[in-house]
Write a structure and sequence with these properties.
The chain is mainly α and 195 residues long. Helix content is 68%, strand content 0%. The chain contains 5 helices and no strands. The protein has helices at residues 2-38, 47-68, 84-120, 134-164, 170-175.
Length: 195
Amino acid sequence: MVKFYAVTARLSERLLSVAMLMALAMMGVTIYEVVARRVFDAPTVWSNDVTYMLNGSLFLLGAASTLLHYRHVTIDIMADRFRTRTRHLILGVVFGFVLLPILVLIDFVAVEKAWAAFASGERESVSAWEPLLWPYLSMVALGLSALSLQMLVQAVRHLRGAVVGGAFLDAYLVTGGATPGNGPENGPENGKSGA
């Protein structure tokens, strides 16, 4: 199981690296558009499309890593009142039996839409540039798939924590050591962050 955790963590981190490159590309496109429009009075027809596609893609590609490091926004009003095992049980059930099935269903639809766009050569119809949609929809589907895998890992880890108790020591095994936001000191078992 630790090997599956490690593979999922590596996938999440690699997709985060791709998302960071997309953020740089998005800044470059935005700067290019501003200079072209304001300095040369020659706006592009493609910058808006590229920007929204990069923006949507990078957020979803980074979501799995965010979950891996417990960086999603949470509201822990009552979490401090529960014992560690109870918190693990609640998070394991919420991740595994509430959120994961919904996310898998959304991902299934995203994969179908990406494949249909690829097969039909679908283009963005409301844009003057009319770019192909499948590259963008594929990144959305990939990000959702990685988030689904990471959510499965988190659900298993929490359910294991509910049975065995204690902090997630395998967080150290997955990443090769404690990193900011990845160690038990920042996990939900200490009430400082959450799922």
